[in-house]
C-alpha cells in the first residue's frame, strides 16, 4: 500500500487531493513544520531523496517530485479520467498545463519569491537599493512572463471548464499549489472572472473538500507577500 | 506532419534530439535569435502561446512547454523505449528525472541565473552590495539544493547508465539542456565521474550526433557565467 508523507503547507497537498479524487486506498502520514524555521522536520528530510516534499513510499520504493508521483499513481488507475489518454481530444491541453505548472508557473513564481525574500529580509537602506535593482528584472522578466501565463489561463478557461479540458485532470490538481499562491497575493482580485470561476468549481468538489479536511490547515500554502 | 519550430540556443534542442532518437518524420523550421538582444524573433514569439521555445505545430494544433511536447510526441510512438511504460522496472526512475529536470533542476538554475544577471549587469558599487545580499540565499537555498540534485545524479548514474534507467529515455533527453548549462559553468569539472561518463555516452549516440548536426551550433545553450 502506498504511503503519502504529507508535509503541511507544502506541495504534497496536490498528492493528497489526487488520491482523494481517485478514491485510492493509501496511508496518510502527516508532518508539521518546525514552528520557528518553517522547515520540514529532520525525519521528513531523511525520507526524501532531495529533502523536499512531497514523498511517497511503497515498500522499498521511494519517490519524490510532485508530477512524477502523480504520473506514477495515475499508472495504477488506468480507467481514471484524471489523465486523458493518448489520442483523447483533451490530451494536448492536459499535458500543456500539467507540465507548465512546474516548468513555467512555479519556476517563475520561485524567482519572484526569492526576490521578495531578499527585499523583505534585508535591512534598510540596502532594501531600497535591492528594490531598485530588481525593478527592471521584475517588470521585463518575471512579471511579463507570469502575466502571460495568467492571461493564457484566463483565455483557456473561457473555452473549457478545467485546465485539463472538460473535466478535472491532474493538470488542475498540480496547478492548485501555484494558483493559491498567486490568489493569496491578490493576483486574481480583478480581471480574471474565468480563473475565479475555476476556484469556485474546484472548491465545490467532494474530493477537494475531503483533501482539505484531511490536511486540516487554514490554507494550502504559506502566504509570502 | 509535425513541425518543430527550433530556436537556436534554446530548450527546443531537446525536441530535436527526441525526434531524431525516435526516427520520426517531421519538418524542421529553424529560427535565429536577434544578434543584439538574443531574443527570439517576432515571428517565433507570435507562434508560441507564451512566447517561449520550443513550439510544435501540426495542422491547427500548437503545443508549447518542453515536456508536454515530449509526452505528446511519445504518444505517437508507443513501441519506443524512450518512455518506459506503466509497470516497467525503470518507470519510477524515468518519471522522477523526467519531471525533476523542470520541477527542480531548471527552476533552481533559473533562480541562480537571475541572481547572476542582476550581479553582473548592475554597475559598481551596487554590484558589491547585491553580491553580499545574495550570498546567504545562494549558499543556503540555491547552491545547497543544486548540489543535492547533482549528488543524487552522480549516485543514480553509478547504479544504471542513464537517468531513465538502463536505456536512454526522454528523462535523459530533457536533462540535456540543464546539464550542459551546468557543465559549461564548470560544475562537473571534478568529483563527478559518473556524470562525466553520461556525457561521453550520450555524445557517442548517433541520434545525438544527428541532432547536433541539424542544430549546427557550437553549443547547445547560451553560456551564462
By CATH, the topology of the largest domain in chain A is: Glutathione S-transferase Yfyf (Class Pi), Chain A, domain 2
Distance between the termini of chain A: 39 Å
Question: What is the general shape of chain A?
Answer: globular
CATH architecture verdict of the largest domain in chain A: Up-down Bundle
Largest sheet of chain A, order of strands side by side? 2-1-3-4
Low-confidence stretches of chain A: none
- Strand runs of chain A, count: 4
Q: How would you name the oligomeric state of the polypeptide chains in this document?
A: homodimer
Largest interface (CB within 8 Å) is between:
A-B, 50 and 50 residues
Q: Can you summarize the main beta sheet of chain A?
A: 4 strands, mixed
- Please report which band the strand proportion of chain A falls in: under 5%, 5-15%, 15-25%, 25-35%, 35-45% or over 45%: 5-15%
Count of helix runs of chain A = 8
Content-based structural category of chain A: alpha+beta
Listing every helix as H and every strand as E from the N terminus to the C terminus, the arrangement of chain A reads: EHEHEEHHHHHH
**Helical residues, percent of chain A:** 55-70%
Our count of domains of chain A comes out at 2
The CATH class designation of the largest domain in chain A is Mainly Alpha
Alpha-carbon Rg of chain A, integer: 18 Å
Mean pLDDT of chain A: 95
Give an overview of the whole structure:
- The structure is a homodimer of 225-residue chains.
- Chain A has 225 residues and is α+β, with helices and mostly antiparallel strands.
- The first copy, chain A, has two domains: 3-80, Glutaredoxin, CATH 3.40.30; 91-205, Glutathione S-transferase Yfyf (Class Pi), Chain A, domain 2 (Up-down Bundle).
- Chain A has helices at residues 12-22, 42-47, 66-75, 91-120, 126-157, 170-184, 193-203, 206-215; strands at residues 3-7, 27-31, 55-58, 61-64.
- A four-stranded mixed sheet of chain A has the order 2-1-3-4, covered by helices on one side.
- In chain A, a hairpin with a 2-residue loop joins β3 and β4.
- In chain A, α1 packs across α6 (170-184), α4 (91-120) runs antiparallel to α5 (126-157) and α4 runs parallel beside α6 (170-184).
- The longest helix of chain A has 32 residues, at 126-157.
- Chain A is globular and about 55 Å long.
- The N and C termini of chain A lie far apart (39 Å).
- The model of chain A has no long low-confidence stretch (mean pLDDT 95).
- Chains A and B meet through β4, α3, α4 and α5 of A and β4, α3, α4 and α5 of B.
